[in-house]
C-alpha cells in the first residue's frame, strides 16, 4: 500500500499534462510507465487515480502458494506433546547413577566394614579367694576372673570386686589393694587399674565392708591374658580377708 500511495503522490504533483514518469520496483527490478494523459496541470480525477492504483496492484508478484504455514502438524511430527513422557529412560546421553555405595570412590576414607564389638567377660565362681600379704592373682575354686583377648585393639575394661571379712581382727588400719595385670606378652600392671582402700580396726568380725569398681581404657595385643590381682598390706591377726565376688568385662572400642 505504501508503494501505491507514493505513486499517487507523484501523479498528483505532475507539473503538466502528458508527462510520463518511470517507476522502478526495487524488489523485482521491473519498470512502469505512468502518464497523466490530458489532465489539467496539478490535478487528476478520482476515477483515473483508482484505475492507476488497480494497475499497480495487479503488477505486484503474488506470493500465493509460496509459503504454507497451515501444515503445523506435519512440521511438528515426532515432537507432539502426546509422545513426550518426560521419562528418564527415554532420554539419551544421561550419566550412570550409582545404585550401590560400593560403586563410589571412598575419597574421604570412611569405614567400609566393621567386624562388630568383641566382648570378653569372666566371673569368679566357687570357693572364695583369701587375700595374702603378697599381691597375687585372685583365684576362685571353680572359675577365676581372668580373660584372654584374642583380637588386638583398644578396649574398655571394667572390673568389680567384693571384699569380705571372715572373723577378721585388724589391730590397726591396713590397706587392701586390687589391680589388673597382664601376665604374658611382657607381664605388667595395667595403667590406672589399681584400687586401694583402708580397713577398719575390727575384732573378729564377719561382714563385707565395701564393693569396688574400676574402668580403664587399654590397648591390647592379640593373646593378652588379663587377671585380677589383690593383696592386704598386713594379714589380720585373726580370721581372714577374702574376695567372695569378682568379675572382669572387656569391650572392644576400635
Describe it.
- Mean pLDDT is 79; it is low at 1-17 and 38-47.
- The protein is built from three helices and 14 strands.
- With 254 residues, the chain is mainly beta.
- The longest helix has 14 residues, at 46-59.
- Strands 3, 4, 7, 11, 12 and 14 form a six-stranded antiparallel sheet that branches. Strands 5, 6, 8, 9, 10 and 13 form a six-stranded antiparallel sheet that branches.
- Helix 1 (2-12) crosses helix 2.
- A hairpin with a 5-residue loop joins strand 8 and strand 9 (188-189).
- The radius of gyration is 57 Å and the shape is rod-shaped.
- The protein has helices at residues 2-12, 46-59, 72-75, and strands spanning 20-24, 31-35, 119-123, 129-130, 136-137, 146-149, 153-170, 175-182, 188-189, 195-198, 202-207, 211-220, 224-232, 238-252.
Amino acid at each position: 500500500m505504501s508503494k501505491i500511495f507514493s505513486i499517487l503522490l507523484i501523479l498528483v504533483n505532475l507539473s503538466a499534462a502528458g508527462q510520463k514518469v518511470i517507476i522502478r520496483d526495487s524488489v523485482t527490478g521491473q519498470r512502469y510507465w505512468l502518464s497523466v494523459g490530458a489532465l489539467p496541470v496539478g490535478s487528476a480525477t478520482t476515477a483515473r487515480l483508482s484505475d492507476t492504483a488497480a494497475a499497480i496492484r495487479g503488477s505486484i508478484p503474488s506470493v500465493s502458494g509460496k509459503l504454507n504455514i497451515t501444515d503445523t502438524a506435519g512440521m511438528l511430527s515426532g515432537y507432539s506433546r502426546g509422545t513426550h513422557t518426560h521419562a528418564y529412560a527415554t532420554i539419551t546421553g544421561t550419566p550412570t547413577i550409582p545404585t550401590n555405595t560400593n560403586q563410589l570412590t571412598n575419597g574421604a576414607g570412611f569405614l567400609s566394614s566393621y567386624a562388630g564389638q568383641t566382648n570378653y567377660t569372666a566371673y569368679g565362681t566357687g570357693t572364695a579367694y583369701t587375700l595374702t600379704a603378697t599381691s597375687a592373682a585372685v583365684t576362685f575354686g571353680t572359675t577365676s576372673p581372668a580373660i584372654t583377648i584374642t583380637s588386638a585393639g583398644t578396649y574398655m575394661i571394667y572390673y568389680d570386686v567384693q571384699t569380705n571379712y571372715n572373723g577378721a581382727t585388724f589391730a590397726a588400719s591396713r590397706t587392701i589393694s586390687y589391680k589388673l595385670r597382664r601376665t604374658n606378652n611382657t607381664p605388667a600392671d595395667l595403667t590406672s587399674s589399681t584400687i586401694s582402700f583402708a580397713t577398719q580396726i575390727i575384732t573378729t568380725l564377719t561382714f563385707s565392708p565395701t564393693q569396688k569398681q574400676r574402668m580403664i581404657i587399654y590397648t591390647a595385643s592379640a593373646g593378652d591374658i588379663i587377671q585380677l590381682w589383690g593383696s592386704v598390706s598386713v594379714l589380720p591377726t585373726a580370721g581372714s580377708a577374702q574376695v567372695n565376688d569378682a568379675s572382669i568385662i572387656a569391650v572392644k572400642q576400635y
